[in-house]
Design goal:
With 247 residues, the protein is of the alpha/beta class. It has two domains: 4-199, 2-enoyl-CoA Hydratase, Chain A, domain 1; 203-238. Helix content is 46%, strand content 17%. It is built from eleven helices and ten strands. The protein has helices at residues 27-41, 66-74, 79-82, 84-94, 110-116, 144-152, 154-163, 169-175, 187-199, 203-216, 221-235; strands at 4-9, 12-17, 49-54, 59-61, 99-103, 106-108, 120-124, 128-130, 166-168, 180-182. The strands form two sheets. A six-stranded mixed sheet has the order 1-2-3-5-7-10, sandwiched between helices. β2, α1 and β3 form a beta-alpha-beta unit. α5 (110-116) packs across α6. The protein is globular and about 60 Å long. The termini are far apart.
Length: 247
């Protein structure tokens, strides 16, 4: 039996992580998540949005399983195992469907890095965030040094990464890590309702908009505008402006 459950409701694929006692992310759980994501990527006809959440109270993903770090320090982590984290987060980021990370509680280290690979992030009032690796003589190894500055800017990202300090939801919202802060009480319902605001939109437009945002990010402006124009041409036949055929 795995540590992830998958349900689909109203075009939202809900992926829920539960690994007792405290939702540390191990390699097997990463592989399991990748399998779910690969399946969802093939289901664009029925899934418009992915909601990533936890069922362990007060914890989204605590951090990477410490066994991964111990094996890395001992030199016993194979290249395949070492690539599991970046491969899975790259798949999460590049999925056709927008991904909403619903964070209720702790998201530190690899937990925050997993959320950063999502398209959008919402959190409960009680949630807290950190890249604490520097305090242990490390640097973030799951994309934190790259995704965080691209999201919030180099100065604020450097502050969080070089101090390792912990911030709450309101500061995370102000910095741009979060898109919204939701009530802690009945958080799962609030998060699913928030994701539904995205899922209600036409799927072809959602997928094209996500691709434009993601693929256009590293491009010069002129190339990004060309990408946008090409994607616009692809989706307009499916829009409300497309001509209808008389019966």
């Amino acid at each position: 039996m795995g540590n992830w459950t998958a349900e689909t409701r109203a075009r939202i694929a809900v992926l829920t992580f539960h690994r007792t006692p405290d939702n540390q992310m191990d390699l097997a759980s990463l592989d399991e998540l990748a399998g779910h994501l690969e399946d969802i990527a093939r289901r664009t006809d029925e899934v418009s949005v992915v909601l990533l959440k936890s069922s362990v109270d007060g914890i989204f993903i605590k951090h990477a399983d410490l066994d991964i770090l111990r094996r890395a320090a001992a030199g016993t982590l194979t290249p395949t195992d070492a690539g599991t984290w970046p491969r899975t987060l790259a798949l999460l980021e590049s999925l056709p469907q927008p991904v909403v990370a619903a964070i209720d509680g702790q998201a530190w280290g690899g937990g925050l890095e997993t959320a950063l690979a999502a398209t959008l992030r919402v959190a409960s009032v009680r949630s807290h965030f950190s890249q604490p690796e520097i305090r242990n003589g490390l640097i973030p190894g799951g994309g934190g040094t790259q995704r965080l500055p691209r999201l919030i800017g180099s100065g604020p990202a450097a502050d969080l990464i070089l101090t390792g300090r912990t911030i709450g939801s309101e500061e995370a919202l102000r910095l741009g890590i979060l898109n919204d802060v939701l009530p802690t009480e009945d958080f799962d319902r609030h998060a699913e309702e928030w994701a539904a605001l995205v899922a209600r939109n036409p799927a072809p437009a959602l997928f094209a908009a996500k691709r434009a945002l993601l693929d256009g990010r590293p491009l010069p402006l002129t190339d990004g505008l060309a990408l946008e124009a090409d994607l616009f041409r692809q989706v307009i036949p499916f829009s409300v402006f497309a001509p209808t055929t008389a019966a």
